[in-house]
Amino acid sequence: MMHKYKISEAKNCLVDKHIAFIGDSRIRQLFYSFVKIINPQFKEEGNKHENIPFEDKTASVKVDFLWHPEVNGSMKQCIKVWTEDSVAKPHVVVAGAATWSIKIHNGSNEALSQYKMNITSIAPLLEKLAKTSDVYWVLQDPVYEDLLSENRKMITNEKIDAYNEAAISILNSSTRNSKSNVKMFSVSKLIAQETIMESLDGLHLPESSRETSAMILMNVYCNKILKPVDGSCCQPQPPLTLLQKLAACFFTLSIIGYLIFYIIHRNAHRKNKPCTDLESGEEKKNIINPPVSPLGILLQSFCKLGLIMAYFYICDRANLFMKENKFYTHSTFFIPIIYILVLGVFYNENTKETKVLNREQTDEWKGWMQLVILIYHISGASTFLPVYMHIRVLVAAYLFQTGYGHFSYFWIKGDFGIHRVCQVLFRLNFLVVVLCIVMDRPYQFYYFVPLVTVWFMVIYVTLALWPQIIQKKANGNCFWHFGLLLKLAFLLLCICFLAYSQGAFEKIFSLWPLSKCFELKGNVYEWWFRWRLDRYVVFHGMLFAFIYLALQKRQVLSEGKGEPLFSNKVSNFLLFISVVSFLTYSIWASSCKNKAECNELHPSVSVVQILAFILIRNIPGYARSVYSSFFAWFGKISLELFICQYHIWLAADTRGILVLIPGNPMLNIIVSTFIFVCVAHEISQITNDLAQIIIPKDNSSLLKRLACIAAFFCGLLILSSVQDKSRH
């Protein structure tokens, strides 16, 4: 993966550095493209056959081009000066030449022999210089022979290959007992093989190609200094942190513990196995297999989780698998969307109940939204604004379901016990907490989980605080409905205040220990931005649930199988309004020109398309009576899919794509997707199993477990603080 360096990043990397380019017109092209990363306004002017200096005084960066079109005594003398102890040496030297030698000597074999002799004499000097500086020898790019002018016709690709082979063999064998320190810069040659036909003269690369070569050169030098996440080349593997080492020890012990437990359990089972009476042929006793103990489930879960986490680490932290940049095209996004929609429609089943937003339907909704979001991420569709705006609605719809689902539960059940809260928080956060430790990432990095966690707590606090108003109480007196609406109005007021008071919001979440959870890159701005982007939609979900349940209680709705939700006239009218609203929002989102302006309007208008979809999906009785089991299956593991994609489907923290099988994109995506979905499903099972054991229903046992969990997080915070100090 290639990181695209910004001006500020390039200057930060190259501060107080001196870079020297030595060679012919092709090296001069590379020099210009490199300088333009630092200063895009730098003009390509002046005498082309002279030295060209560049200096940025603000960052004390000095970049020089030295005109030496042939590998000869002149180039040798230039390099020899830098090898002397008393002379200041460039930090980076980029050298290369050959086409002038071919041109001047008309492609003669004698010129090639002389080139070999000259480069042989320069090789020890380059090797000596490479001990203190980064030295790159640029291999010659191929030419497009049909476009070459008459005085360049002798420069053939056959000759260029011969000169490249000479340079490689001599420079690589310049040190007898160790690997050469002079690095071969061959990427420009590979790029030219694909793009040289776009050249204006057949010799020099088109501008876009040399810009890529210069950016790769910047990656080669700067990645090991700035360590960008999406620069997968040329930087060492990050050292294991203390928390990662402790996690590795824990999972290793869990695997060993499970193996011991399994062997003991298996031996005990063999001893208890019924023996057969030889005379009668009947078993003497019939033993029923005992149920698996909680300890066995616990060890098995942590054993499987340990192996899965090892796969996560290998995929996205070790330098074992390659990663590649995303390149968006409309076909890479829309064709998979059409494919999964056809699959989803094919797997239709009848729902168990026909209520609005029944369980099968909400699972289906989560499923197809998650699949669309996954395709959006892997295709890099965030660069296309209309798609981005529609994906923002899908994220908002998830939060809408959070508001709707949790409000409905508390309103109907009236269960504000600590067990329910702990179960929800555990299921939401377990995987993310483990990944924060194993992958060395802050909690806020997995932004969606903090978002749904905070909103769940907001819903809980709003409804649990005095006076606790639930459906059972409100049915006896309409006054309680008014009381609940007052609560919701106060919640809306608080949301508006925090949305338009960034200072107050940041002060709240900058308090320790909240800051450890919600800071990203040293501040909580990213958290404020994410929260503010969908600030009203959870409230909308709660309000919708309240109105729907009130109408349902008064039997205003017809939720029988095959029946429209309202009378035919009302249903047709609402369907028409919903379709128009849905299409109007899509037209508005598709006409967006400025992301910042559209994001500002999004919190207020996203609910239009969400409500329109709910009505279209639920008003017709036949639509409400069926669901897609294909989408519903994915919906049940949607949270795990969303989190796991960061490291084992995408790569470099979602900025790239994981490459398990190089050179075959289609096979790679099939294999990586299969593993990714299987892992997400397994983690969902592990989370459910552990939730039953770690969060018991008995309050006294639960309080003891919570004390242990609190101690664990205190230790985690202390170790994290020690880790941060050691880094700084």
UniProtKB/TrEMBL annotation:
Tell me what topology the record assigns in the membrane: Multi-pass membrane protein
Q: Which Pfam families match?
A: Cas1_AcylT (PF07779)
Catalytic activity, as annotated: CMP-N-acetyl-beta-neuraminate + acetyl-CoA = CMP-N-acetyl-9-O-acetyl-beta-neuraminate + CoA; CMP-N-acetyl-beta-neuraminate + acetyl-CoA = CMP-N-acetyl-7-O-acetyl-beta-neuraminate + CoA; a ganglioside GD3 (d18:1(4E)) + acetyl-CoA = a ganglioside Ac-O-7-GD3(d18:1(4E)) + CoA
InterPro entries hit by this protein: Cas1_AcylTrans_dom (IPR012419)
Q: Cellular component per GO?
A: Golgi membrane
Q: Give the Cas1p 10 TM acyl transferase domain ranges.
A: 227-706
Q: Which key words are in the record?
A: Acyltransferase, Glycoprotein, Golgi apparatus, Membrane, Transferase, Transmembrane, Transmembrane helix
Mind listing the GO biological process terms from this record? carbohydrate metabolic process
What GO MF terms are annotated? N-acetylneuraminate 9-O-acetyltransferase activity
Record-listed E.C. numbers: 2.3.1.45
Q: What class of enzyme is it?
A: transferase
> TM spans, by residue?
242-264, 295-314, 326-347, 368-389, 424-440, 446-466, 478-500, 533-551, 572-589, 631-651, 657-681, 702-722
Q: Which family does it belong to?
A: Belongs to the PC-esterase family. CASD1 subfamily.
**Name of the molecule in the record:** N-acetylneuraminate (7)9-O-acetyltransferase
Q: Specify the species.
A: Balaenoptera musculus (Blue whale)
